[in-house]
Amino acid sequence: MVKASDVLLILVAIIFPPAAAAFITGCSCDLLINICLTILGYFPGHIHAFWLIYRKMQAEERYGYGGFYCT
Predict the structure, then answer these.
(1) How far is Cα 48 from Cα 34, in angstroms, rounded to an integer?
(2) What is the pLDDT of residues 43-65, one digit of tens each?
(3) Which of 41, 51, 55, 71 has fewest C-beta within 10 Å?
(4) Is the Cβ–Cβ distance between 66 and 3 less than 8 Å?
(5) Which string of DSSP letters, residue by residue, matches 20-41?
(6) Nearest CA-CA partner of 53 in 33, 15, 12
(7) Cα–Cα distance, 2 to 42 (Å, whole number)
């Protein structure tokens, strides 16, 4: 189920993908990967940000709210 916070993350990912990655994972390797992908091409940064959002939504459905811990 899509929540309002997920819609907001999608909008942020459309505007600036590294910000969405930072909101989801904090300061982690995924953020660095997203920054590099966005520098290399705007579209790969989008794909990675949307993949992170999808992974977060899937984990919250499976394990409940707060069930997403990025390692």
Answers:
(1) 6
(2) 999 999 999 999 988 888 888 77
(3) 71
(4) no
(5) HHHHHH-SSHHHHHHHHHHHH-
(6) 12
(7) 25
